[in-house]
Amino acid sequence: MSLGDDVVAELAHFRAEAESQMRHTGRITRAAESQALDPATGEYITARTTVYTGAGKVGYRSAVTTQVDAAGQLLTVQQLTLSLPVLTSAGVRVGDVWETLTSPLDPARVGARLRVAGDFDPTFSTARRLPVEVVTSDG
User: Fold this and answer.
1) Where are the chain's structural domains?
2) Torsion angles phi and psi, residue 79, rounded to 5
3) CA–CA separation, 113 vs 109, rounded Å?
4) pLDDT values of the chain reduced to their tens digit, one per residue, 139 residues
5) What pTM did the predictor assign?
6) Can you tell me the distance from the alpha carbon of 130 to that of 25, in angstroms, rounded to the nearest whole number?
7) 17 contacts 94 by C-beta, under 8 angstroms
8) Alpha-carbon distance 30 to 48, whole Å?
9) Superfamily classification of domain 3-134
10) DSSP 3-state assignment of 85?
11) Among 59, 74, 115, 126, fewest CB within 10 Å belongs to which?
């Protein structure tokens, strides 16, 4: 028996432990490839398809902040991570948007939207930990 075999044998337990910390529920949607005209407003609307609904956890990859000067504005940047259950979130892709539906530990997070900014695919993953960025518009 090898260490790798030992990890695989316990992976379901490790994943259950990781999922027990996912206290938010949310929905991940993907923009449709075409837009439809809203006759009431005259504006084009991008339809969204739900690709995941369920548990999640939002956290910072580190407490380190970076100061960025963007067009004369000094901005503070932190790197966020969205953790999802491995087995039920396989269809999530870069560009998809998470919306927090419930947050028992911090109700102020309800409605927060994050765009998946990168992928995560390690061999012995206990959670799908995706880099995300705050969404400020539907763009």
Assistant:
1) 3-134
2) -95, 120
3) 9
4) 788 888 888 989 999 999 999 999 999 999 988 788 888 988 888 889 999 999 999 987 765 566 667 677 766 667 889 999 999 999 999 999 999 999 999 999 999 999 999 998 788 889 999 999 988 654 4
5) 0.79
6) 16
7) no
8) 5
9) Bacteriophage SPP1 head-tail adaptor protein (2.40.10.270)
10) coil
11) 74
